[in-house]
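Teaching assistant here, posting this on the class forum so everyone can see the example we discussed in section. The complex has two components, and the goal was to see what a joint structure prediction looks like when all of them are supplied at once.
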Amino acid sequence: DAGITQSPRHKVTETGTPVTLRCHQTENHRYMYWYRQDPGHGLRLIHYSYGVKDTDKGEVSDGYSVSRSKTEDFLLTLESATSSQTSVYFCAITDLNLNEQYFGPGTRLTVT
Amino acid sequence: TQLLEQSPQFLSIQEGENLTVYCNSSSVFSSLQWYRQEPGEGPVLLVTVVTGGEVKKLKRLTFQFGDARKDSSLHITAAQPGDTGLYLCAGAYSSGSARQLTFGSGTQLTVLP
């Protein structure tokens, strides 16, 4: 198994509060990704990082920000959570040779 | 946004039956992956195909990449209850960032004993 952990695994928060999700890898991979998974939509890319302090937007980046101050950690922040951000969030890292991605266990976020 | 269409969305079959899941796009892939996901877990990579016409086998699972590299299929022979799960295809497009994948919406497979 790829060494990827996510924390917390479950979180319930109220609308308007800030939330930060953490992804930690032990593989020293350069590329890291944040996805959200919703019924009928598969996995949609929120943001990704191609190195320390190097990040870019994905398909559904509105309302989210990210930071990568160390190779091993990639943080996803919801500055002011909304009910539409209730979802399961997955972090992934990639094998650069074949674009194969390896996923963390996910964080289930509920915004009430 | 490039689309990756996956079908069927849901599939419920009896143990021992065969099934095929399809993944289609109008654009060319540089590589395509198939993943399997179980409830409460992240997707797990099953296979990567990169060459048009390529066929890969993983026990009872057969993966095929179309000659034009625009489509792929997953065929399961003699399905078992342990095959139950969400199957996802994901492609890296030749025209896009080689580091990004586009995912299909998934096929939820249920194999009944």
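For the discussion questions: Chain B touches chain A at residues 1, 6, 9, 30-31, 33, 40-45, 48, 50, 88, 90, 92, 98-101, 103-106 (CB under 8 Å). Chain B has a mean pLDDT of 93. Think about how each of these relates to the inputs above.
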